[in-house]
Amino acid sequence: MIIGIGGVSRSGKSTLANLLVTHFRKNGKKAIIFHQDDFVFPETQIPKIKNKTDWESPQSIDFELYKEVVELFKTRFDVVIAEGLFAFYDDNMNELYDKKFHVKISKRTFLIRRAMDIRWGYEPTWFIDHVWQSFLKYGKPKKELKKVVSVSGEDEFDMEKVIKTLNH
């Protein structure tokens, strides 16, 4: 099974992926996660916005390599989870997913969580807004994409609901 998990920055994609891997491993399945962030092009190849590297652009991701790795590992694992901001951007990746989860949070929650995230130091307000706008433009599941299950990332995940969805 290949599971795609998408959502805006700080929505809980990695948290959900980790909870799912733990669930599957506890139940005797071989499970692995691939984070889209691990498939970014070298910084020199990524577009800039106002002299800042635009990590929020789909042009920052090597989708070809990402798909190749996911396909390779689906033969070695029972469950492969692919998560990232642009999880639903690339049609070739969308074809691979057996299950799709979109982690939703409000803009307010996004702004609060992003403000608390100090990994990259100070981020200007315009850039934080750019992250949100990029998600709206490139990260949301396309309307024609079928069977995307929305889960709330506002609080703890309802894992019973998530697991029930996977079993159907």
UniProtKB/TrEMBL annotation:
InterPro entries: P-loop_NTPase
EC number(s) per entry: 2.7.1.48
Recorded GO MF terms: uridine kinase activity
Keyword entries, A-Z: Kinase, Transferase
Transmembrane feature ranges: none
Classification via SUPFAM superfamilies: P-loop containing nucleoside triphosphate hydrolases (SSF52540)
Identification of the protein by name: Uridine kinase
Species name: Emticicia aquatica
Gene responsible for this protein: udk_1
